[in-house]
């Protein structure tokens, strides 16, 4: 039996290119050893963090990431045939495990689609939940600036903020995303940043400044909002910097540290696995919101493992609304 895997054959330089990632076949053994299971991928995630994290490794290597997989052959009593698990097994169609790297779903999904465990009820959703609730500690009436508002993380941040009584000032990259965030998700102010000066419109809708900022984009967004639009004692969660991931040169902004100092801002990055022990509680809470219709989920689904590369590259072109998922 053969499996397929996407291999990073050379580091990305600037915009990712087709020659950076190669689809390869590999052999799987005919028989399993005692304690092993053979799994087949059902859904795979692509996420922006994969771009900067790839620099940590030396090519060639199988691209890393999480997938939902099903046990199709087993010699492990803990994982009978048909068991569905989460695994950081990378961009592979099939893989063999001794069970140590497999993670059963830790909460009751109910009628919620399985694929949500890679998005709103997975790492991106946990990032949104803890980046907002634990780091920003939103209060009723707070104004929240949110970029990347139609993405896997941002769309959840904005909805949770609304549930907790915040006023959400959101930015997206096209008008269809604007329509979704404004009319379906109920964000208070939504702008297509390609058609406005984001600093000018923030000044217009929040002339006295904002208490909170959830940053998925970085670059000029981060520095402009820190310098101009947060109130004294304001708080910011730094989640991502997708504006900079393809930069070849490091840019410096010397004024920003003084703004943080003079306004006594609290700026904190989030590595979501810091909160791993509390994920099941957060997912149970968010799944209840989903069941009640308070938290809406959208996925951009790419059909076929062969489209992993296209799905990944699409993240940097703004192709996805909500979570980008690859389905077998």
Automatic annotation (TrEMBL):
GO terms for cellular component: cytoplasm. Residues 4-105 form the Oxidoreductase N-terminal domain. GO terms for molecular function: 15-oxoprostaglandin 13-reductase [NAD(P)+] activity; 2-alkenal reductase [NAD(P)H] activity. It catalyses: decanal + NADP(+) = (2E)-decenal + NADPH + H(+); leukotriene B4 + NADP(+) = 12-oxo-leukotriene B4 + NADPH + H(+); nonan-2-one + NADP(+) = (3E)-nonen-2-one + NADPH + H(+); dodecanal + NADP(+) = (2E)-dodecenal + NADPH + H(+). Keywords: Acetylation, Fatty acid metabolism, Hydroxylation, Lipid metabolism, NADP, Oxidoreductase, Phosphoprotein, Prostaglandin metabolism. Transmembrane segments: none annotated. Its EC number is 1.3.1.48, 1.3.1.74. It holds the Pfam family ADH_N_2. It comes from the Eukaryota. InterPro entries: ADH-like_C (IPR013149), ADH_N_2 (IPR041694), GroES-like_sf (IPR011032), MDR_fam (IPR045010), NAD(P)-bd_dom_sf (IPR036291), PTGR1 (IPR014190). Its main location: cytoplasm. GO terms for biological process: prostaglandin metabolic process. Residues 152-286 form the Alcohol dehydrogenase-like C-terminal domain. It is found in: Cytoplasm. Belongs to the NADP-dependent oxidoreductase L4BD family. Monomer or homodimer. This is Prostaglandin reductase 1.
